[in-house]
Amino acid sequence: MHNYSNSPRLLADIGGTNARFALETGKGAITAMLTLPCADYPRFEDAVHAYLAHFDTRVEHAVIAIANPVDGDAIRMTNHDWAFSIAAARAELKLDTLLVVNDFTALAMALPVLAAVDVVQVGGGVARAGSAIGLVGAGTGLGVSGLVPGNGRWVPLHSEGGHVAFSPLDEREVDVLRYCWQRFDHVSAERFVSGPGIALIREALAASRGASPAPELTPADIVARALSGGDALSREAVDCFCGMLGTVAANLAVTLGAQGGIYIGGGVVPKLGAYFADSPFRARFEKKGRFSAFTARIPTWVITAPYPALSGASAILADHLAQHPPLQARRRLRSALPAAAHQHGELDHAQR
């Protein structure tokens, strides 16, 4: 198996806005982090070339966690215009191994190794050991995943749960949904529970109140106005977002039976800071009708670690290389085995 001696491993976490790269020089030794704006590079491969040139290094094995479904060789991003073939990218980048996985699958694999300083609990609840774990996260889109225990290990869920139909819980959310029905045939949870969703919620609230939609405001502007207390409509939009996220998290909790807890990832919620703990999120999470007592017992944590998906991506690549040794490692194994092993077919067994 590749043991970092020849070259570091390349790790990447690619969202709709930014591509975050790093090198892993030993188990858990992640360094040389660099964030590149996706819009600055016409192709995914161009961003990788730029990163490797910046650090003047080459790699043999890479894993890319991407905010997109991964099904087969062709990747076409939902929230950005990059499209590429995994096989063609591997050849152009001269890689022995190129794995591409959903970013929330990678983030899910990082959950068991997060330290106490990497998370902040919101509300009460105590995790039940050996139970399923849920993961949701708002960024450019809405990511959903989780972990289920099986045969002594965690199995990540390959989910696109952010695209489930949005479910309103009060009259205000019905008004917001009705506004969006005029524009979209299908209104997913991601339409609202995401960075762009905050702007859409404010726009819909403004329309229902006869106020100015203020299209020039970015999601970051709206959050800043909400936290400063200078704009009541922005504050209401962020409150509405947090309540909607509570519903999404509670739906995931009852769907998975996630008594191991629900983790909140993505780039939006950490920017809300202490406000999030006092927002409608946790009350909405516990408002589940006949299952309110069930969700009240489940802890919810905000992930505050800066690049947690990279640790999960590293674990996925390590597992892959352990099961599929690179060609060079197989050749070293062949030369190390005694001649009798070749005669009795033991080498074939070792390669498999």
List keywords for this structure.
352 residues, alpha/beta, five-stranded mixed β-sheet, 15 helices, disordered C terminus
Oligomeric grouping of the chains:
single chain
SSE run? EEEHEEEHEHEEEEHHHHEHHHHEHHHH
Number of helices: 15
Q: What share of the residues does DSSP label as strand, in percent? A: 15-25%
Shape: globular
Strand order of the largest sheet: 8-13-12-9-10-11
Spans of 5+ residues with little confidence (pLDDT < 50)?
A: 329-336, 339-352
How large is the radius of gyration?
22 Å
Structural class of the secondary structure composition?
alpha/beta
Sketch the major β-sheet.
6 strands, mixed
| Terminal Cα span | 13 Å
Helix content: 40-55%
Rounded average pLDDT: 90
Task: Count all strands and give the number.
Answer: 13
Description:
This protein is an alpha/beta fold. The chain has helices at residues 44-55, 86-92, 103-110, 171-181, 195-209, 219-228, 232-256, 268-272, 275-278, 281-286, 292-296, 308-323, 327-336, 339-343, 346-351; strands at 9-14, 18-26, 29-37, 61-66, 74-76, 83-85, 97-102, 119-122, 133-138, 142-150, 153-156, 262-265, 300-303. The strands form 3 sheets. Strands 8-13-12-9-10-11 form a 6-stranded mixed sheet, sandwiched between helices. Strand 5 (74-76) and strand 6 form a beta hairpin.
